[in-house]
Every structure is written in C-alpha cells, then in structure tokens.
Amino acid sequence: MWLAKIKSIFTANQSEPSSSLRRQLAMLSVPIFIETLLIMMLGAVDTFMLSRYSDESVAAVGVVNQIVMLAFLVFEVINLGTSVICSQYLGAGLNKRIPSVVMVALLTNLLLGLAVSGVLYFGDEMILRAMGLNEVLLPYGTAYMRIVGAFAFFQALSMTLSAALRADNLAIYPMAVTFIVNIVNIFGNYTLIFGKFGMPALGVEGAAISTATCRGIAMLLLFIVVRRTIVKRIPWNVFVKFPWRELKNLLRVGLPSAGEQVSYSSSQMVITYFINMLGVEALATRTYCVNLIMFAYLFCISIALGGAICIGHLVGHGRTRGAFLLGKLVMRLSIIITASLSLLLAIAGPWVMPLLSSNPEIISLGCTILWIDVLLEFGRPTNIFATNALRAAGDVNYPFYVGVVVMWSVAVVAAYFAGIVFGLGLVGMWLAFACDENIRGVVFIRRWYSMKWASKSFATRS
After folding, report:
1. Backbone φ, ψ for residue 11 (5° rounding)
2. What pLDDT, in 10s, does the model give residues 285-317?
3. What pLDDT does 280 receive?
C-alpha cells in the first residue's frame, strides 16, 4: 500500500498545485537557493583555504563547527517559531501581530545568544576535550572556538531576522546580504589566514576572525532591512505589556521543532566522537565529504524551505488540499534532483577529492563515501521536506518523535557497531547513516499522505 504511494511521488498526477502556487514557490525558492548556496560556500571557502594550511586544522575546525552548530540550535527554538507563526498569520490575515512576534523573538534570542556566547568562550577547552580532540588538534580547535563562540549572539539575531523576512515573502533580502558577506569572508580569509596585505598570518585564528566579523555585518544589514519592511515602527509597548501569547506560540512551535534538530546534531556529535576514534584521516575525510555533499542537497533545502512557507500560508488560510498537493510536488522534485546531483558528485569524486587533500588515504576513502552517499540521498530530501512542511502546518511533535527514535537507534547505534565493533570504519558508519535517512523518509511519506497534519493549525481568523 505505502509502496504504491511512494511510487506515486514520481508519477504524473492531474491534481497538481495551481500555477499561482508554483509561481509563489519559485519566487521563494530561488532566492533561498542562492542564499543557501552562498552560506554553504562560506563554509566551503573556509575549509578549502584551511586545507592549504593543514589537514589538522580542517579536522579541528570541522569538530568545532559541529559544536557551534549544535549551540546555534538553541536559537532555532525561537527562529522556527517565528517562521511558522509569521507564515500562518499572513495566511490568516493577522498581519498586525507580526511586529510583536518579531520583537519578542529578537529579545529572546539576544538573551539566549549572550548566554551561548559565554558558554562557548569560557568552556572551549573542556568541551573539545570531551569531544575527544587530541593534543595535536586541540590548539587549532580552541583558537577557532574562542573567537567564533564569543560572537555567537550575532548569529542568533541574524537567524531571527532572516526567518521573519522569508516568512513575509522577502527572501531576496537575506540572499543579498549573504552575497555581500561571502565577498567579505573570502577577502578576510585570504588576508588573515595567509598574512596578505601587511597583515599577520593567523591561520585558524584568521579564519575565525573573518567568520565572526561577517556574522556581525550580516546582523546589521538584516536589521536595517527588517526595520524598513516588516517592522517600520518598533512596538515598544512590548516592554510595558509583554505579549506572552506570542512567546507561548513561539515556544509551542519552536521547542519540538528545534528538538528534532537538536536530536540530529547531538547524534552527529556522538558519531563525530566515534569517527575521532578512527583517526585524523577519517575525521578529515568526513569534513571534506560533508562540505561536498551539502551541494548535492542544496536544491532540496531551498525548495523545502520555500515550500514550507507556502504551506504555512495555505494552512493559515484553511486550504489544506492545496498544501497537500504542493507538498507532493516539492517532495518529488527534491528526491529526483538531489539523487541525481549526488550521483554526479560520486562520479566526479576522483577529480574533486585531490583538490582538497594530497593524502592518498583521504582521497580514496572520500571517493568511496561519495558513492555510498548516493543511497543516502534518496531518504534525506524526504526528511528535509517533511520536517519543514509538517512544522509549517503545525504538526510539530511528530518529526521530533520520529527523529529521536530512528536517529539514535539506527544512525548512532548502528554506526557504532558497523564502524567500531565490526571494524568497517567510516564506510560502515555511512551505510548506517543511509539506513537512518531512508527509514525516516518512508515514515514521513506515510505521515504526509495520512493528512493528519491538516488539523494542527493554530492560526485563527479574528
């Protein structure tokens, strides 16, 4: 039964979304695609430039970035709530509530951002030692983490501002800001890592300074845009009569939504600990492969985010049938394009990997991983679509429950046994990751077709 439904994703259906829905999806997805590409380029540029410095610096920064990304998920509690609530309020015609939502989100994430910055700055060495970083990698890791961590609150505010702009169909502005930041980061990395234009060669510290500076610039630019578009008048009354209803809605949506992402990132950190047990080569290979593979599912992320915003508008307007049909279209495109791009990347592996490392062991292992990842990329796009779409519809708990159960029972436990106990190393672990993504993919397809999410909206007309 469900096999037939999975098959129907790839077959033509007369019940397709209207041309206006497709046009709105394209108008959102294209700038989100470019923005996401630029964000990935930001990380890839850091990795590529540091690879000219040393494989050890790449391995250490890869571990630090996982810790930082996990810390950033604290902000996603509010950001995800902001995106969903603003989308549904727009669909329900409750535009006057949006400035208060944005203001509450910014205030909350500012406080959270300052707290996270303190933890990352003062707890750098303790956290990295707990992750199993050895004495060779530890100096690189602490140097990077202190600088990037100290300014984590920049990212907290930037993520909130971007979420509000996207929900209001203004995704082009975060895209433009990210483009500017990329140019600044490339120049900053080149100058500070290698000591150009009279500046000292700071290596990993130079990359960290460039990254932190770029995040500060992005925050300022996004704030200016939001002030001129969504929040033309700052609702100062929130300091007099705090809108607890909006904060409650933000937490109601954000906590389980961010919980799913926290579960994923936490499982990845545990897996990184396992990979660290395999040696520097395995850790560096994982970092290189992750940065390459991100480009294969870039389209999936952008169309899933764009589709989620459209679905939020439709659900807020009570058009659940349109949301269902749009979801089918997004799912179909995501799977076909992501799997095709991952196949092309695997074919190009022998030419791409030598550009990142001169170590024959890393190159060989990386090429193998890219082929295994082709199997993984059938499940991942479904998961990315479903978690965003179900969240946008108000079905925020289901992705969390599925994520916790399957990620930890399959991705973590199976990866440990395959990679460590049975001695299959990184190859065995990646096979476990593929099983995890595909199992969750099947579960989420079933949930979307069940239409149980259709009654989960919290936005009501008034």
Report:
1. -105, 150
2. 888 888 788 888 888 888 888 888 888 778 877
3. 81
| Type of residue found at 348 | A
Q: What is the pLDDT of residue 16?
A: 56
Three-state SS string over the chain comes to CHHHHHHHCCCCCCCCCCHHHHHHHHHHHHHHHHHHHHHHHHHHHHHHHHHCCCHHHHHHHHHHHHHHHHHHHHHHHHHHHHHHHHHHHHHHCCHHHHHHHHHHHHHHHHHHHHHHHHHHHHCHHHHHHHCCCCCCCHHHHHHHHHHHHHCHHHHHHHHHHHHHHHHCCCCHHHHHHHHHHHHHHHHHHHHHHHCCCCCCCCCHHHHHHHHHHHHHHHHHHHHHHHHHHCCCCCCHHHHCCCCHHHHHHHHHHHHHHHHHHHHHHHHHHHHHHHHHHHCHHHHHHHHHHHHHHCCCCHHHHHHHHHHHHHHHHHHHCCCHHHHHHHHHHHHHHHHHHHHHHHHHHHHHHHHHHHHHCCCHHHHHHHHHHHHHHHHHHHHHHHHHHHHHHHHHHCCCHHHHHHHHHHHHHHHHHHHHHHHHHCCCHHHHHHHHHHHHHHHHHHHHHHHHHHCHHHHCCCCCCC
Q: How far apart are CA 311 and CA 389, in angstroms?
A: 7
Whole-angstrom CA distances from 297 to 46, 150, 205, 222 are 20, 30, 30, 26
Q: How far apart are CA 38 and CA 44, in angstroms?
A: 9
Tell me the one-letter amino acid at 185. Answer: N
**pTM of the full predicted structure?**
0.68
How far apart, in whole angstroms, are the C-alpha atoms of residue 393 and residue 356? 41
pLDDT at 55 (0 to 100): 74
For 243-267, b/e burial (b = at least 16 CB within 10 A) is: beebbebbebbbbbbbbbbbbbbbb
Write down the pLDDT at residue 17.
61
pLDDT of residue 83: 73
Residues of the chain with pLDDT under 50: 1-14, 460-462
What rounded mean pLDDT belongs to the chain?
Answer: 81
CA distance 73 to 65: 12
